[in-house]
Amino acid sequence: MNYSTLRKSVALSFASMLVAGVVSAQTDSTATTTTTTTTMADTTMSATTTNAKVFGGRGQYRTWSIGINAGATSANLATGGSRNDYQNNKIELGYGISVRDQLGHNFGLQLDVRGGKVSGDNTVDQASYSTRFYQATLSGVVNVATIDFIRRKNSVNFFINAGAGLAMYNPTGTTANGTAFDYKNGAAGNAATNKWVKEYVIPVGAGVKFRLSEAVALNFGYTQNFIDGGNFDGRTTGQNRKDHYSYGYGGLEFTLGSSSKPSLEWVNPVAMMYDELYDAALRQEVEALKGRVTNVENAVNDLKKDSDGDGVSDQFDKCPNTPAGSVVDGSGCVIVFPKADSTAAGVAYSNIQFEFDSSVLRTSSYPALDATSADLRSSGKTVEVQGFASSEGTAAHNMTLSRDRANSVKTYLVNSGVSASKLKVKAFGETKPIADNSTEEGRIANRRVAFQVR
User: Fold this and answer.
1) What does the pLDDT average to over 24-30?
2) What are the structural domains, with CATH classification, of the chain?
3) Which letter does DSSP use for residue 238 in this model?
């Protein structure tokens, strides 16, 4: 036997098992199926399909099948390999049964139990052998190509397979000097063992399968079987210590399970995706979804609509049609700011006002702050810089805001030359208002920093 061929066979078998592990991790689904008649949009041909989904899981399909086969065996291989111990290899009968679980559209695991006979002889030394064998193997079967003849389901599948298992055999025959041998029953003075020879076997093959109906398929295949031993033909030589045989067969395969479910092996995923795309119920759902999306888009546009351009949408604008350029509050109403008292604009220790939710100093406050700075630098007084806020927002937020306002005033005074040790900051938040917080005018007055001389 050619060891390179054996290594390739083992590698292919191992790869098949890995694929089986990956495919078997799919989540099964218990979706039921019904048979309907679908007319393709771009053809005039009708075909029988089901409502099975491409990604719906194996539960919606029939996956188990059982097969029977028979054919011819030979010690020769179609791919060649190492020479045999006998010159003439005869054609004998082989037979078998198989059970397969289809794990995906193009991969399945198959158990094969086979039996038969392999024989040969030499014309020179008159040696001959005949070996009765049985073997059980587990293989991965991969559908490598399909022909569907423009049908909704595949009609022809081409496959390859590889696996491993155990072979039991009993070589019998005659040696070159005429001595008979029988490994199991004994011959020519050898004691009978009453046991079959057992060795590992690696099958590697290919074939083609024709779908005859929803439940029956016709198979033709060819398998090369590599025996992990040299006595399959009753003779082990120094040049040939590994034996092999081939099996060409034909047979029938029967899909098991409910006839209301399609066979996973024969389903055409491309055709299924086409059916899903043009499914009437699915298209109705899509149209309904489009309608819901349109309603959401209209609602969003209504929320964004701002007829008077004041930055507040119409749905929340309590004062529509405000003049262009007006400064409005969160309700869309114009904010009325108190007029500055020019006689007190530069008076020391007057209240410093702030915008809504802001601790940034107004430029209009600079004269009063400069007057306060001048008095503090000349008198050496110590003052408490008190920050306040109106009642909008949470109490915690307003407490932080009032502290930031007081620190803004302190920073201005320190930058103008006042000693930081003369300035003490205290925050009061929304407590101690000096005006009614229920009106905008009152809230404006409450957004302030005041001074308390110590």
Assistant:
1) 37
2) 3-267 (2.40.160.20), 305-331 (no CATH), 336-453 (3.30.1330.60)
3) S
Q: What is the pLDDT of residue 235?
A: 81
> 448-453 and 352-353 as β-strands: parallel, antiparallel, unpaired?
antiparallel
Whole-number average pLDDT of the chain: 82
Element holding 397 (H helix, E strand): helix 395-415
Higher-confidence position of 158 and 51: 158
357: left (phi over 0), alpha (psi -120 to 50) or beta: left
Structural contact between residues 222 and 78, judged by C-beta atoms closer than 8 angstroms? yes
Number of helices (H), then strands (E), belonging to the chain: the values are: 6, 16
273: left (phi over 0), alpha (psi -120 to 50) or beta: alpha
Confidence of residue 186 (pLDDT cuts 50, 70, 90): confident
214/413 Cα distance (integer angstroms): 93
Bridge partners (DSSP) listed for residue 133: 116, 169
Regarding predicted confidence, which is higher, 29 or 365? 365
The Cα-based distances of 61 to 52, 259, 421 in angstroms read 8, 10, 85
| Arithmetic mean of pLDDT, 194-223 | 94
CA dist 152 and 157 (Å) reads 14
CA 435 – CA 351 distance, rounded (Å): 13
Given a cut of 80, whether residue 419 has pLDDT beyond it is yes
Cα distances (Å, whole numbers) of residue 117 to 90, 130, 170, 213: 10, 7, 10, 33
Distance CA 377, CA 162 (A): 98
How does pLDDT run across 116-156, given as a tens digit for each residue?
A: 999 999 877 889 999 999 999 999 999 998 876 555 666 89
pTM exceeds 0.70, yes or no: no
What is the C-alpha separation between 391 and 447, in angstroms, rounded? 9
Among residues 422, 425, 421, 418, the alpha carbon closest in space to that of 404 is found at 425
φ/ψ of residue 141, rounded to 5: -115, 120
Question: Dihedral of CA 75/114/5/243: which sign?
Answer: negative
303-324 mean pLDDT: 81
Residue 187 three-state SS: coil
At 270, list the tokens. Answer: 């491309």
Nearest to 350 by CA among 207, 449, 243: 449
